[in-house]
Amino acid sequence: MHVSVDALGNPIGIILTGGQISDIKVGPELLSEHSDCNVIADKGYDSNDVVEAIESNNCRAVIPPRSNRKVQRDYDRFLYKERHLVENFFSKIKEYRKIATRYDKRADVFLSFVYSAAALICLR
Predict the structure, then answer these.
(1) Which of 20, 35, 37, 52 is 20 to 30 A removed from 63 (C-alpha atoms)?
(2) Backbone phi, then psi, for 38, in 5-degree steps?
(3) Alpha helices in 1-124 (DSSP H)
(4) Contacts for 82-88 with beta carbons within 8 Å, 24 or more apart?
């Protein structure tokens, strides 16, 4: 599950993929609708393609570079601390047992419960 949240921690984009799909492949699709913003993501999204996709939408990428990167990029360490909003959303959504354990075999059924749980989180 790949999620983007706003400045209040409310979900604004959810994409469900298989467990073997990396963040780098889903990043441009998840972040394509955002413009004029700061995109704060973890090291899983650190690739030149993702950073270029973010910057092409007139956004600023706040992504720490991987340790094996040949050319280390700078990022705002103070602003990166706000990434906890995404982690807080994941902890809130994992309160729902059906989502935390993923009993559903079909992805569309599971995603519908994720959307309904996200709606309940927004209504709190």
Answers:
(1) 20
(2) -100, 125
(3) 23-31, 48-56, 77-80, 84-93, 97-101, 107-123
(4) 82/7, 82/40, 83/40, 83/41, 83/42, 85/5, 85/7, 85/8, 85/9, 86/3, 86/4, 86/5, 86/9, 86/40, 88/9
Residue with tokens 């340790």, as numbered in its chain: 67
DSSP 9: S
Quote the pLDDT of residue 21: 82
Q: Which residues pair with 60 in a beta bridge?
A: 38
| Residue tagged 């989502």 (tokens) | 99
Q: Render pLDDT for 36-58 as a digit per residue (tens, 0 to 9).
A: 888 888 888 888 888 888 888 88
pLDDT at 103 over 90: no
Q: Classify residue 106 by burial, with Cβ atoms within 10 Å: 0-12, 13-18, 19+.
A: exposed
- The set of residues, in sequence order, having a beta carbon less than 8 Å from that of 39 and lying 6+ positions away, is 31, 54, 59, 60, 61, 62, 63
